[in-house]
Amino acid sequence: MEHATSRPAKHTAAKTSHNAPIKAPAKPQAKSYTVEQSSELLSFLIAHVNMGRNAVKSVLARGQVSVNNKATTVYNFQLEPGDIVTVSKEKTTDAPAFLGLRIIHEDDHVIVINKDAGLLSVASPQEKELTAYRQLTAHVRQSHPANRIFVVHRLDRDTSGVMMFAKSEHVQQTLQNAWKENVQERIYVALVEGTVNKPEGTISSWLKESKTLKMYSSPYPNDGQHAVTHYKVLQSNRQYSLLEVQLETGRKNQIRAHMEDIGHPIVGDKKYGAKVRTIGRLGLHARVLSFTHPTTGKVLRFETDIPKKFTNLFAPVNS
After folding, report:
1. How far is CA 123 from CA 24, 130, 157, 196, 283, in A?
2. What is the DSSP letter of 22?
3. What is the distance, to the nearest Å, from the Cα of residue 257 to the centroid of all Cα atoms in its chain?
4. Residue 269 annotated among the catalytic residues of the structure
């Protein structure tokens, strides 16, 4: 549905020169469409807007799309019958601007993001830094000032990848209280030092935290928190190995500690024994998160690309 307003023309023929150019009617600055059936935003735009898929994505990314007068950049934003989708020629004023994160899924109960390395997930009360938590809180409060978000799990500042927040304390508790049952997959990629000769393996230990806040594997059974990590080698050369890492348990710094245990610390992880910082960041990325939605019961799966900084180290050298 298209909305446009125009003033009635005034009859001022006596003042009009025969040589004066005739002005074309002004083009509307925005077009609005009424949603008739449930759909994801990207699919709806492709079906209704006369643009190619890439052009539609660009318009979305630039904040030129709003739903019910609220700007959104989320591709799979869920539309319902009666919603009004507006596509503007210019960026909308209240379009969210995120630093170090991108929303890859949002509904009434959860938000899933792809976090960049270097961004804190959540800060302590003493820290004033920009965090994913703070940015997403501002995002949900655009629709209502009382809205909040709740931390479900965390990623280290220097770890990138998929991360989830809840929009209510009830959803947070539902997810956390049955985390092992709700989460179907948590897959990371780890860039580690040296050649990992064993193509796949499992590391199992009891993790404890030292006085310097470093996690380490206790030599004694049942001494600490049991941690199990499965890995598979994706690529390797003389200097590095790229591993797919699947967590059976989710302990603090589990992957970092276990990689040190097998003698192949994560690139850039000086705290856990790394000697090189080739890529200028920690070589750890949360690639896949799959979980049972706390209200719909559907299994949702989100997969992100392996950072190019990781894969570039295995590119063939031109002779």
Report:
1. 55, 8, 10, 35, 22
2. P
3. 25
4. no
Beta strand 150-151 pairing with 30-34: unpaired
Q: Kindly report the average pLDDT of the chain as a whole number.
A: 86
C-beta atoms surrounding 158 within 10 Å = 18
Q: For residue range 256-282, what is the model confidence (pLDDT) as tens digits? A: 999 999 999 999 999 999 998 889 999
Closest by CA to 35, choosing from 25, 24, 22, 45, is 45
Sign of CA dihedral 284, 287, 292, 295: positive
pTM: 0.70
pLDDT tens across 30-63, in order? Answer: 899 999 998 889 889 999 998 888 788 878 877 7
Q: Are strands 225-236 and 200-209 parallel, antiparallel or unpaired?
A: antiparallel
The catalytically annotated residue of 156, 158, 223, 305 is: 156
